[in-house]
Amino acid sequence: MPEFTTVFRKLRHLLAVSVLSVPCSAWAAETPWALEQDEGDIQIYTRPVADSPFIEVKATALIKAPIEHVAAVMGDGDNCSEWRAMCKSSEVLGTPSDTQRTIYMVLDLPWPVADRDMVIDSVIDIDRSAKTVNVQLQSASSKYPEQDYVRATTTGQYEIRALDNQQVLLTYIMHTDLGGDLSANLANPRMIESTYEDVKRLQVLAEK
């Protein structure tokens, strides 16, 4: 089994943004999380966000696979990864450093809702002593011109923490404003469903 220092070097090139399930107003818990779904190895939580009709979603998942395998399944931002159900297309626009990426993604939303796109900066922080990778996500709409889509914005982060050589704990937090005239009453329940579906798909693929 590779040393974690080697694994983390691989993660610099493997980890990138993951959206919608689709995770934020950071880890700070100004508002308590409400448990929405508990499926054993996966839990889904939500909380309101000030000045936004769209909820923030958090997923925690135990994935029984090595950390480098989980990272490989998550993808590198170029082309949609298999676990992202709503991803229509994705590409890396730039890599300012080994730990930074700017990614453009198009989301395939169900008819009659128009598809969305978003531009996101992704910054990776690797803590070798804690065997943890943390990825911060922030919208960067000004870095790519508007296309024939409704522009969405998102902030979030996710953490992958190796529990041992064969399993990790994923914590995923995301707040996405889908823009346009989409009703939050319609979007919020779907965000909960799609977050669970995507994280479950990631878990299944990583554990193969």
Major sheet description = 10 strands, mixed
Give the tally of β-strands: 10
Succession of helices and strands: HEEEHEEEEEEEH
What is the helix fraction of residues, given as a range?
10-25%
Our count of domains comes out at 1
Mean pLDDT: 85
**What count of helical segments does DSSP give?**
3
Q: What would you call the structural class? A: alpha+beta
Give the overall form.
globular
The first-to-last residue Cα distance is 17 Å
Query: Looking at CATH, which topology would you report?
Result: Alpha-D-Glucose-1,6-Bisphosphate, Chain A, domain 4
Low-pLDDT stretches are 1-10, 12-29
Rg calculated over all Cα atoms: 16 Å
CATH class: Alpha Beta
CATH architecture: 2-Layer Sandwich
What's the CATH superfamily, by name?
START domain
Strand percentage lies at 35-45%
Provide an overview of this structure.
This protein has 208 residues and is an alpha+beta fold. The protein has one domain: Alpha-D-Glucose-1,6-Bisphosphate, Chain A, domain 4 (2-Layer Sandwich), CATH 3.30.530.20. The chain is built from three helices and ten strands; from the N terminus they run H-E-E-E-H-E-E-E-E-E-E-E-H. Strands 1, 2, 3, 4, 5, 6, 7, 8, 9 and 10 form a ten-stranded mixed sheet that branches. The longest helix has 23 residues. The N terminus is likely disordered.
Topology of helices and strands:
Layout: H1 4-14, E1 34-38, E2 42-49, E3 52-63, H2 67-74, E4 87-97, E5 100-107, E6 116-127, E7 132-139, E8 150-151, E9 153-164, E10 167-177, H3 184-206
Parallel strand pairs: 6-8
Antiparallel strand pairs: 1-2, 2-3, 3-10, 4-5, 5-6, 6-7, 7-9, 9-10
Helix pairs in contact: 1-2, 2-3
